[in-house]
Amino acid sequence: MYIDSHAHLFNDDFRNDLPEVLSRAQDAGVRTIVVPGTTLETSYEALELAEKYPFIYACVGFHPHEASKATEQSFNEIEQLSKHEKVVAIGEIGLDFHYDFSPRATQEAVFKRQVEIAVSRNLPIVVHTRESMSQAIRIVMEAAQKYPNWKMGATPQGAVDAARGVFHCFTGKADEALQLFELGFFVSYPGIVTFKNSPVLETLRAIGYKKILIETDSPYLAPVPLRGKRNEPAHIVYVANRIAEQFSVEPSEIGRTTAENTRRLFGISS
Question: Is pLDDT of 159 > 60?
Fold first, then answer.
């Protein structure tokens, strides 16, 4: 059983065959899919999918590329959407200093504002970073220090621990991942683990697989041997297989562990 913790199923690439895409995912063992919004409009679309399909859950928020479009009214709408029972996080939010489609100061302000919404709703966050890891870690660290009870709860083993969010498509170093673990965050890996000479494998081997999630980031980042094609949730098996190889375990062990982490983070039972 697998959970695809990050797939943009509202994307135009899925307009004509989403039922078939979802059927292939279920045949591949994908039992749950989390769909993060990137704008106010796509947040509504993610929620519509979650309302239509019992195994889909939604996240709502403004991607850093879209930060310039965020207004106080849209923040209010995001907060209202977050009260829906099928909304499990604020996301996809964060910082992208590679493209700078929105000014960096605006990105930081919008990121912080959405973290505040997450804290007020006691929800986790789904974080995007590109060439901005240290800045993003600083912001979530400040939030964790300011709000120590944010998403603090008991683990299945009875220990008290936080599950505050996930840094998706993680390309950071091992020390950054360990810092995030200490702050109550997970890191997530998509098809980049299958790319030739992928530097994330060294980090993955250093941090282990006990505090990670897996994702496809569909329709992007299709894994080897499907690079250049549309990605979809069924392809999560390539991610699980590649990670399993690194630790000489069965893919089912990766599926089980990452599914447990995803359910714990997002508070979902399926």
Answer: no
Is the bond preceding residue 225 a cis peptide, omega within 30 degrees? yes
Where exactly are the structural domains of the chain?
2-266
- Which of the 8 DSSP states describes residue 231? P
Select from 112, 77, 76 the least CA-distant residue to 94: 112
Coil, strand or helix at 136:
helix
State how far the Cα of 197 lies from the Cα of 194, in Å rounded to an integer: 9
Task: Calculate ∠ Cα 145-181-80, nearest 5°.
Answer: 60
State which H helix or E strand residue 21 sits in.
helix 18-27
**Residues 31-40 as b or e (16 or more Cβ within 10 Å = b):** ebbbbbbbbb
- CATH class of the domain comprising 2-266: alpha beta
Cα distances (angstroms) measured from residue 248 to each of 29, 201, 242, 243: 21, 14, 10, 9
Q: How many other β-carbons are positioned within 10 Å of the β-carbon of residue 118?
A: 26
Helix or strand (DSSP H, E) at 89 = strand 87-96
What is the DSSP-derived secondary structure letter of residue 65? G
- What span, in angstroms and rounded, lies between the C-alpha atoms of 213 and 210? 9
* pLDDT tens digit sequence for 50-76: 999 999 999 999 999 999 999 999 999
| Percent above pLDDT 90 for the chain | 95
Global pTM reads 0.96
